[in-house]
Specification:
This protein is an alpha+beta fold. The chain has two domains: 56 residues, no CATH class; 47 residues, no CATH class. The protein contains three helices and three strands, in the order H-H-H-E-E-E. The protein has a three-stranded antiparallel beta sheet with strand order 1-2-3, with no helix packed on it. Strand 2 and strand 3 form a beta hairpin. Helix 1 runs antiparallel to helix 2. The longest helix has 18 residues. The protein is globular, with a radius of gyration of 15 Å. Bound molecules: zinc ion. Zinc ion binds next to loops.
Length: 104
C-alpha cells in the first residue's frame, strides 16, 4: 500500500530524474542511472510509466537506451508510421508505433 502522499512524491522525483536524463551537461553514465532510478521509483509506487521513459528503455533487456550511443532510432513510414528502435546492448529491433488513422 502506497499512500497518496508517497505516490505524489514519487511522481515528482521520477519527473525530476527524467529531466536530468535529458540534461546534456551531466556525464552519460550518471544519466543512464537516473532513468534506471526513475523506472524503479515508478514501479514501486505502481504508477504508469511515462511513454517517454518507455521510449528510452529496451523492451527486451530493459537497459536504458541512449540514442546515438547504445541505440539507433529510425522513423519508418511503412507498414505504419513508427519508430524502429534498435538496442545495441541485446541487438534486438522493435517497433514503437503510433498507429494513426489520420494519415493514410
Ligand atoms: Zn535490449
Amino acid at each position: 500500500m502506497v499512500s497518496r502522499r508517497a505516490r505524489r512524491h514519487g511522481y515528482r522525483e521520477a519527473q525530476r530524474l527524467v529531466r536530468l536524463f535529458f540534461n546534456t551537461g551531466i556525464p552519460r553514465e550518471y544519466r543512464l542511472r537516473y532513468i534506471e532510478e526513475a523506472y524503479k521509483i515508478l514501479l514501486k509506487i505502481r504508477g504508469e510509466k511515462p511513454s517517454l521513459l518507455k521510449l528510452f528503455r529496451c523492451k527486451y533487456c530493459g537497459s536504458p537506451l541512449h540514442p546515438g550511443v547504445n541505440a539507433v532510432y529510425r522513423v519508418r513510414p511503412r507498414p505504419y508510421l513508427h519508430v524502429a528502435v534498435k538496442c545495441l546492448v541485446c541487438g534486438k529491433t522493435y517497433r514503437k508505433g503510433f498507429k494513426s488513422t489520420a494519415r493514410r
